[in-house]
Amino acid sequence: MKKFSTLKSIPAYLPIVNIDTDMIIPKQFLKTIKRTGLGKNLFFEMRYDENGKQIKDFVLNKQPYDKSNILIAGKNFGCGSSREHAPWALLDFGITCVISSSYADIFYNNCFKNGILPITVSEDQIKELSEYSKRKEEINIVLEDQKISFGNKELKFEIDQFKKKCLIEGLDDIALSLEQKPKIEAYENRLKSIKPWIFND
User: Fold this and answer.
1) In terms of DSSP bridges, do strands 139-142 and 6-9 run parallel, antiparallel, or are they unpaired?
2) Which CATH code for domain 6-170?
3) Computed from CA positions of residues 34, 38, 44, 46, in that sequence, does the dihedral angle turn out positive or negative?
4) Are the C-beta atoms of 20 and 80 separated by less than 8 Å?
5) For 112, which DSSP code?
6) How far is Cα 21 from Cα 44, in angstroms, rounded to an integer?
7) Cα–Cα distance list, 85 to 15, 31, 186 (Å)
8) Is the pTM of this model over 0.90?
9) What is the pLDDT of residues 13-36, one digit of tens each?
10) pLDDT averaged over every residue in the chain
């Protein structure tokens, strides 16, 4: 998993509440188990018309938001079914940080497991940050300091320290397990000496 340290981008603002995972990546695109290739179908039903052409008014179809790495969204983002394809699609599009006032728990945790930083701030702070999106101005995020900088202002955000460590060090579930490799091997070697028949072919 790619390490997360700092991020500077013009944020894209999607002022819709209760965006569920089916809106993020519809069910017809869930057949793949690959984490790549889903970005083109992100927010499919909002980005494309019935003929498959881009809807010009949708924020992620407009410049410079089509290159945004930060998405500002309405409350309860990522609700609905617990599909991990939702963070995969965001990440494949290029979005590595989502800012909202609240998230569905499973989606929130899936973000950390896939290298996306979900930041929780108040509704008033969402409105303040959205102005920088409208003005097409960059905001800067420093995870180590838990800080968002915009204009001459700074905004602090809270985050679980273990989840923060995982993002900064690029540790997904597999990497966390591999950190315990010496202990796992020591246990297996001890078990071989006590119960060798378990390891016989």
Assistant:
1) antiparallel
2) 3.20.19.10
3) positive
4) yes
5) H
6) 11
7) 22, 10, 36
8) no
9) 999 999 999 999 999 999 888 888
10) 92
Q: Give dist(CA 84, CA 111) in Å, integer.
A: 9
| Three-class SS state of 70 | strand
What phi, psi does 81 have (nearest 5°)?
A: -70, 160
DSSP states of 152-165 as a string?
TEEEE----HHHHH
Spatial contact of 70 and 45, defined as CB atoms under 8 Å apart: no
The pLDDT tens digits for 148-192 are 999 899 999 999 999 999 999 998 765 656 566 677 767 777 777
Give the three-state DSSP class for 20: strand
Q: How far lies 32's CA from each of 3, 57, 109, 110, 116, in Å?
A: 25, 29, 21, 17, 20
**Which residues face 119 on adjacent strands?**
99
Distances in Å between the Cα of 194 and the Cα atoms of 14, 188, 190, 199, 200 are 59, 10, 6, 11, 13
The amino acid occupying position 198 is I
